[in-house]
């Protein structure tokens, strides 16, 4: 690369003749920095079309560093200096400041030129505009994030799904073990939901599920609380740092808010509107406790509530 930039010439130079024509006809922007002075000895005129800064304004590596996004500057400079000192060719991506105050993504491809004794003589390289590529990569990353978020969301109700609960439950269990804070679970089932579907149809049944989910989700009001659809007409509330009294309060609030919704259910055996049955339990998990066993305990309490007549909370063993 140095032979192309400075053929048969030693020391600082400006590429002559045909080499200049070749270099300056590409979109890639060539440059050369003298290692001993850290001064630019050449930079292609294409730099002005890309960034707005004239070639004459690129005097030293300080100009290069100062025309870099503040978030990229330190790590990029440190990386390039370290690689250059070791004589290692390298690449660096960063946002470069334009004269108009915007930023352009640049990829610098750097080659280290050595003297006969092995010491560094110069750095030569090319700058490439990779803004469009970065924008495309950002779109792909955002799509991946969106898809991941969708994979943890129940498509019908819009709240978290079973996968999200299965992911967060062991995390909160481990936190509760480490901190000694109580962890509460509330399992929820819509009463006589099969009869609701039979009477009103599955379209109305889906609408009912969405309304119930929205009510329950408002009760998981803190940042770490989680309301998830557990399956079918069952839901679960994961309530970290919540004692038994507070957990029952959350459950009763769910019943009250749903009662206020007054969703007609003429085929219910528990009233004339849609109701829910709930099982609740609280634990400060120790090293010998098992998260699956605790979940099963909460589930048994849910079915105690259903066996006792529905539309109620069971938070103790029968």
UniProtKB/TrEMBL annotation:
Residue span, GGDEF domain: 181-318
Entry-linked CDD domains: GGDEF, PAS
Leading EC class: transferase
Annotated EC: 2.7.7.65
Reaction(s) catalysed by this chain's protein: 2 GTP = 3',3'-c-di-GMP + 2 diphosphate
A matching Pfam family: GGDEF
Parts of the chain that traverse the membrane: none
Start and end residues of each PAC domain: 90-142
Record-linked InterPro entries: Diguanylate_Cyclase (IPR050469), GGDEF_dom (IPR000160), Nucleotide_cyclase (IPR029787), PAC (IPR001610), PAS (IPR000014), PAS-assoc_C (IPR000700), PAS-like_dom_sf (IPR035965), PAS_fold_3 (IPR013655)
Residue ranges occupied by any PAS domain in the UniProt entry: 19-91
UniProt-recorded name of the protein: diguanylate cyclase
Organism (species): Massilia phyllostachyos
